[in-house]
Design brief:
This protein has 455 residues and is mostly helical. It has one domain. Helices cover 69% and strands 4% of the residues. The chain contains 20 helices and four strands. The chain has a two-stranded antiparallel sheet. It has a two-stranded antiparallel ribbon with strand order 2-3. The chain is globular, with a radius of gyration of 21 Å.
Length: 455
């Protein structure tokens, strides 16, 4: 437990890192449903409030729930595609989305112990490969932030889901701001001492925001017009509706989310020097389900452990879960104080881009470090496990339309490079090296954590 001023500062750093991703999903879904601006603003406030609740559940922990690691929770992008499809169907709409989210949350709580039993399938060669793919996949997010968002983003025209081109993508001014933030962070990491080095990302973002304001890129009109206080009411839009197909689809998304979370928990265990056993995984995955259930109740969407913040733990070296708990409290306050959330939202994505490239690269580097402990010299099969798994993990990254001929119901599975890498690495390792035991898996995890603690 750090002193309160440090907790608040480090927690704010985590909030700034994940804020753009946290508010993107309610913006996309709200616009797809053609909700009025005040309802979209409420969706964002509700999302931030539920983010805070889910983060506190995950970090602080309750009996049987919460992994108690420095985790920030946010809405998963894996749910965007299915929810956009639901949004275009009048008989489903927003209330049908909330019904499927609530059902998926209950489903996640129930299946968490079964997913955690997969731990023996994740020896270091598998864990390192998955974490490497997580980092490489996240680099796309950081690079797009530096470019000013996505090259194209989902939209709805005449009732049809389409991709709208981003005319501001890749402008030289924005790229210059991202580079400036990157250089500030690197300078602080090299020459900063103690706490200054720990908040290098936050100071870099603040410096970038000041530069963006001076250049007229950061605007404050929404901050001035936003209200000071608002209350997030459960079931604000009405009673959720439950439809079978949306529920099944969202439960599939939940499985994808939990497998990705499993990899992130193992990455955090390696970074913090803590052994992640089956019981800890069960608590963490169950918190994903609880967070999603809370999301459906508080007018928002499925929640997962945000991988962006895993990279921040690696950059700062601050391993206290109370830091992210402080971030959870800040998110709660932002959900209740629309003016403050509008101020944070005003930070341009290009500012976050310079920080994202550093943080997400650290996740990939963590995976590479785990793989250095794998025996490639005497066991050549491990080379094939890594090579093919990374290749499959890159499909959705380098060829987004690769699976467009497959059934729509499989999209949540096939469009997740992390999940494809996990399936391939687990399957190939079992084929070449056989299945381990739970005791061996926990021993491997302890070895990796012990090595990290020694370093």
């Amino acid at each position: 437990m750090l002193p309160i001023p440090r907790l608040v500062t480090l927690g704010l750093q985590h909030v700034l890192v994940m804020y753009a991703g946290a508010v993107a999903v309610p913006l996309i879904i709200g616009r797809a449903l053609k909700l009025p601006p005040e309802d979209v603003a409420f969706l964002i406030s509700a999302d931030l409030f539920a983010c805070g609740l889910a983060t506190l559940v995950q970090c602080i922990g309750f009996p049987g729930v919460g992994i108690r690691l420095p985790v920030m929770m946010g809405v998963t992008f894996a749910s965007v595609g299915p929810m956009l499809a639901m949004a275009t169907q009048p008989d489903i709409g927003l209330l049908g989305i909330y019904g499927s989210v609530i059902a998926a949350g209950v489903f996640g709580i129930v299946i968490a112990p079964f997913i955690s039993r997969l731990l023996p399938l994740f020896p270091p060669v598998v864990t390192g490969t998955i974490i490497l793919v997580i980092g490489i996949t996240l680099m796309r997010v950081g690079i797009n932030w530096a470019g000013g968002g996505l090259p194209a983003f989902p939209g709805v025209i005449d009732g049809k889901a389409v991709m709208v081109l981003n005319a501001n993508y890749g402008q030289l001014g924005g790229l210059g701001i991202a580079l400036f933030v990157l250089l500030v962070i690197l300078a602080l990491i090299k020459w900063g001492k103690g706490f200054v080095a720990n908040i290098a990302v936050l100071l870099g973002i603040i410096a970038g925001a000041v530069l963006a304001s001076a250049l007229g890129v950061m605007h404050f009109e929404k901050v001035l017009s936003a209200r000071w206080f608002d209350i997030v009411i459960p079931f604000h839009f009405g009673t959720p509706q439950f439809h079978l197909v949306p529920i099944v689809t969202m439960c599939i998304v939940m499985i994808v989310v939990m497998i990705e979370s499993l990899g992130m928990f193992l990455a955090l265990g390696e970074m913090t020097g803590r052994t992640i056993d089956r019981k800890a995984l069960s608590r963490g995955l169950r918190a994903d389900g609880v967070g999603t259930l809370l999301g459906g109740i508080f007018n928002t969407f499925p929640y997962t452990s945000f991988s962006q913040n895993v990279g921040l733990v690696g950059v700062t070296g601050v391993r206290s879960r109370w830091v992210t708990a402080a971030g959870g409290v800040i998110l709660l306050l932002l959900g209740l104080l629309p003016k403050m959330s509008a101020l944070v939202e005003a930070v341009p994505q290009v500012v976050l881009g310079g920080a994202g490239i550093v943080m997400f690269g650290m996740v990939a580097a963590t995976g590479a470090r785990i793989l250095t402990a794998v025996d490639f010299k005497h066991n050549r099969f491990n080379l094939f496990v890594v090579a093919l798994s990374v290749g499959f993990g890159m499909i959705s990254l380098v060829a987004p339309n690769f699976f467009h001929q497959f059934p729509v119901v499989l999209k949540p599975l096939l469009e997740s490079g992390i999940l494809l890498a996990a399936i391939m690495s687990v399957g190939l390792n079992a084929f070449f090296n056989g299945l381990g035991t739970a005791e061996k898996a926990e021993h491997d995890a302890a070895d990796v954590a012990g090595a990290a603690e020694h370093v």
